[in-house]
Amino acid sequence: MHPIFIRKAGRLILGLAVLLTGLTAFPAAAQTGETVSDKLSEAIRLYTELDFDKGIDLAQQLLARPDVTSKDSVAIYAVISMLTYGKGEQYITKSYEYLDRMAGLGPCRIHLPYEFWPQQLRDRWFSILQAKNLWTCPDDKAPGVTTIAVLEFDNYSVGKYQQELGYITKGLADFFESDFAQISDLKVVERDKIDYILREVEMVKSGAVEPATAVRVGRLMGAQIMIFGSITQLDDKKTKMLVKAVRVESSEIIATVEKTGKPEYFEMEKALVKEMAEKLDFILNPKTKTIIDKNGTTSEDAATLYSQGLYYMDQYDYKKAYDFFKQAYEKDKNFAEAKRKMDIYRPLATS
What we know:
CATH topology of the largest domain: Rossmann fold
Distance between the termini: 15 Å
Order of helices and strands: HHHHHHEEHHEHHEEEHHHHH
CATH architecture of the largest domain: 3-Layer(aba) Sandwich
CATH class of the largest domain: Alpha Beta
Oligomer: single chain
């Protein structure tokens, strides 16, 4: 593998190792220190090299171990499903079968869906949860932690700005989600999980999501607070971004923040995240504020390209998604999330 791509793949593999910590360390591997997560990290490396069959063989060898636990098996099937999916359209049904096996072992044994799953697998997993009426797991609610869900932003701009800013609304929600996730007192519901349930139960007919509808979705997701955002641009020089927090239990608006000024949306987003967190009484120490400031990108061009990548990712058009994530990363080499999504979708764009 080319040295440049080894560096790019490293973040994906490292992230996998973190996700898979706590899995069984087999006695047979004790001398080498290899655990299930070590082996699965190797399988993911093979995925980044487009060696899907070899990765599948390696992961399936783990299933043959006599002391593999149900938790281990779920993690193993999760990786096999992704590797199988990478082989092409004719293998999609087979990749879904592994998700069904995971569900049979228990959807709540480990936190799912995995971040490294492509969007179509994530949506398939959401359909399994929907069928089981199991959008949350018993251990999802940790003491002292508030669950929050961020809706895709509405675009109330006029004229050409209505079309030009169509992608940005998706990116702003993604950035809000990512920045709120840096706050230790918060658990953030995945953006695509919210989008899935809104789409699949046909709660969204057209236009903006009704607040009452979104609140019902929030209850299904176990969220205590829903975040609604909107942008309104009327000319080249001035725009407004408005963000509201709604308490799910009572449907009341508990906090509102807004910014008006130059259409520098992603700079506005950072300021509004911190302002909203303070209004909701979430602690933002200097370290957390620094992390939020460095999270994402300071490049408006990179953020816009990334937003377009999200759009095509949701459409399962992985070639275009990868191209836009790549362009975003090229605009800002410190844009870690664009790089991570490059790692996920490069094999699917080129296989």
